[in-house]
């Protein structure tokens, strides 16, 4: 994958399989501490488990680094519906926005830079410098789990004390809706 938008990926990379092969989630359990699960999305039962975990049950907060990127691809490949995300029961939080609101001049912008800054994780391998043999490669699952863990821990450490979470969540939902429907931002109007 060389692109950052599913339509461009489809046009330029011409994938022959769904672009999202795995997904990893992380959460805190009062009895067991931090837990993690990685899903192979070509297995229907694992897709169903991910969907249930993300959207089933009590209100959910979905946190991600550059979250719209992940959501666009999950929606494009049919793993999520946009309508599932715009309910009041779902709060979207982007770690990039949390980090910016915490310190807008912090030079570390990527998860790979933030995680070591907060002593959360030091990456040994990344998708850029390592080719995984398949979506079932244990190293890919480890990498996915590390990303989920690093995102979760950085979010826990930074907190949201410097941001209006509902405002940011609504902004993410609106932006995603605009992108999915081909509505462009009017840059001159935003600058003025």
Amount of beta strand: 5-15%
Q: Helix content range of the residues, please?
A: 40-55%
Give the overall shape.
globular
Total count of helical runs of at least 4 residues: 9
Element string (H = helix, E = strand): HEEHEHHEHHHHH
Distance between the termini: 36 Å
Biggest beta-sheet profile: 2 strands, antiparallel
Overall mean confidence score, pLDDT: 89
Question: What is the count of β-strands?
Answer: 4
Order of strands across the biggest sheet?
1-2
Assembly annotation: single chain
Radius of gyration: 17 Å
Query: How would you classify the helix and strand content by structural class?
Result: alpha+beta
Can you walk through the features of this model?
The protein has 192 residues and is of the alpha+beta class. 47% of the residues lie in helices and 14% in strands. The chain contains nine helices and four strands; from the N terminus they run H-E-E-H-E-H-H-E-H-H-H-H-H. Strands 1-2 form a two-stranded antiparallel ribbon. A hairpin with a 3-residue loop joins strand 1 and strand 2. Helix 5 packs parallel to helix 7. The longest helix has 21 residues. The chain is globular and about 50 Å long. The termini are far apart. The model has no long low-confidence stretch (mean pLDDT 89).
């Amino acid at each position: 994958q060389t692109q950052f938008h599913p339509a461009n990926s489809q046009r330029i990379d011409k994938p022959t399989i769904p672009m999202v092969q795995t997904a990893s989630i992380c959460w805190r359990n009062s009895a067991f501490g931090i837990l993690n699960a990685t899903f192979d999305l070509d297995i229907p039962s694992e897709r169903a488990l991910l969907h249930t975990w993300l959207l089933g049950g009590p209100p959910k907060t979905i946190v991600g680094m550059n979250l719209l990127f992940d959501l666009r691809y999950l929606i494009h490949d049919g793993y999520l519906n946009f309508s599932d995300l715009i309910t009041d029961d779902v709060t979207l939080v982007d770690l990039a926005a949390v980090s910016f609101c915490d310190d807008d001049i912090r030079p570390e912008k990527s998860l790979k830079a933030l995680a070591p800054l907060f002593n959360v994780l030091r990456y040994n391998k990344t998708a850029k410098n390592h080719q995984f043999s398949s979506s079932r490669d244990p190293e890919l699952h480890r990498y996915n789990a590390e990303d989920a863990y690093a995102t979760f821990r950085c979010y826990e450490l930074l907190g949201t004390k410097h941001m209006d979470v509902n405002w940011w969540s609504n902004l993410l939902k609106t932006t995603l809706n605009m992108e999915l429907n081909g509505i462009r931002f009017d840059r001159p109007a935003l600058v003025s």
